[in-house]
């Protein structure tokens, strides 16, 4: 007979491995310098409330993103591997930042196009890896069938649930889907993993294609020179502007980037970053992440607990 203690250990093991949307970044903390996530960025809006849940059958199980905390901590998983970390603002339906280790030596690439979604933003019991829209809808359909969520209720339908939990492809209007973790900083499967809607936010097309694109290339080709490792965090500054009047997807006022360059022993060699308004204006570069943090504290309206890197 299996003992109670052994059964408990098995259960804990299953719980620890279940899912990549979690209360923390424990499953992908190696995306951060010294395994330490950004601190003090407590600016996410609450998860949007579902309208009229009292009229629905079994809403505690059937509603999209039920009982979901905001922000969501996503270990971006494609296949069986976690590639980077994203802090996702459920209320604004945009990522607040994505953190990753740049592939310094690899040939930059752009694998695929932005087609993936995060099923566990819909229901925590769905698969833990990125899926395209067809696959995501199929998983929601199977969940509805297993739990008994009748799609005669509009709020239980597959497209509604997916769109309630995160931004969809057609929610960006005239804006580009601007990468936070750029595909060009990785190769092959890691590049492919960046092609998810939880890693993009509305970005002015002129900014995306010119000044920000130029900075991303400089970060890869120039600023990483002499580094053994390059830890990167790219984020946005939310604003009072939304893509449409329904206030589904927020338009950031600024994009920002921070990097930490280390030697073979993970000792910091240099840090820096960049900040630019989400327009066609130029990007301002910084030779110290400390100076960048000072600028961001005012824009983000956060206090001195805001810290991008631990000791870089």
UniProtKB/TrEMBL annotation:
SMART domains found in the cross-reference section: Endonuclease_NS, NUC
One Pfam family recorded for the sequence: Endonuclease_NS
Domain called DNA/RNA non-specific endonuclease/pyrophosphatase/phosphodiesterase: residue spans: 80-306
Signal peptide positions on this chain: 1-19
Keywords: Signal
Gene3D superfamilies named among the record's database cross-references: Extracellular Endonuclease, subunit A
Xref: InterPro entries: DNA/RNA_non-sp_Endonuclease_sf, Endo_G_ENPP1-like_dom, ENDOD1, ENPP1-3/EXOG-like_nuc-like, His-Me_finger_sf
GO molecular function: hydrolase activity; metal ion binding; nucleic acid binding
ENPP1-3/EXOG-like endonuclease/phosphodiesterase domain segment(s): 81-308
Name the record gives this protein: Endonuclease domain-containing 1 protein-like
């Amino acid at each position: 007979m299996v003992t109670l203690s052994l059964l408990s250990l098995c259960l804990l093991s299953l719980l620890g491995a279940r899912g990549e949307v979690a209360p923390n970044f424990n499953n992908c903390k190696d995306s951060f310098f010294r395994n330490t996530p950004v601190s003090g960025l407590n600016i996410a809006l609450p998860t949007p409330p579902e309208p009229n849940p009292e009229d629905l059958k079994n809403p505690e199980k059937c509603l999209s993103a039920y009982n979901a905390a905001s922000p969501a901590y996503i270990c971006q998983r494609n296949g069986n591997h976690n590639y980077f970390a994203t802090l996702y603002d459920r209320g604004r339906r945009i990522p607040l930042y994505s953190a990753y280790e740049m592939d310094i030596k690899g040939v930059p690439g752009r694998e695929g196009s932005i087609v993936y979604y995060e099923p566990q933003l819909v229901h925590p019991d769905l698969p833990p890896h990125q899926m395209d829209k067809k696959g995501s809808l199929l998983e929601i359909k199977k969940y509805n069938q297993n739990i008994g969520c009748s799609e005669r209720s509009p709020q239980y339908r597959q497209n509604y649930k997916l769109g309630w939990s995160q931004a969809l492809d057609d929610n960006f209007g005239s804006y580009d889907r601007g990468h936070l973790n750029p595909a060009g900083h990785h190769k092959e499967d890691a590049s492919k993993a960046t092609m998810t809607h939880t890693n993009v936010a509305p970005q002015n097309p002129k900014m995306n294609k010119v000044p920000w694109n130029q900075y991303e290339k400089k970060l890869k080709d120039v600023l990483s020179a002499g580094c053994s490792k390059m830890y990167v965090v790219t984020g946005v500054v939310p604003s009072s502007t939304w893509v449409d009047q329904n206030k589904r997807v927020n338009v950031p006022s600024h994009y920002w980037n921070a990097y930490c360059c280390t030697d073979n022993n993970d000792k910091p060699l240099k840090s820096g970053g960049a900040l630019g308004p989400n327009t066609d204006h130029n990007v301002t570069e910084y030779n110290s992440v400390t100076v960048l943090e000072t600028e961001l504290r005012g824009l983000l309206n956060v206090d001195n607990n805001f810290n991008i890197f631990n000791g870089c």
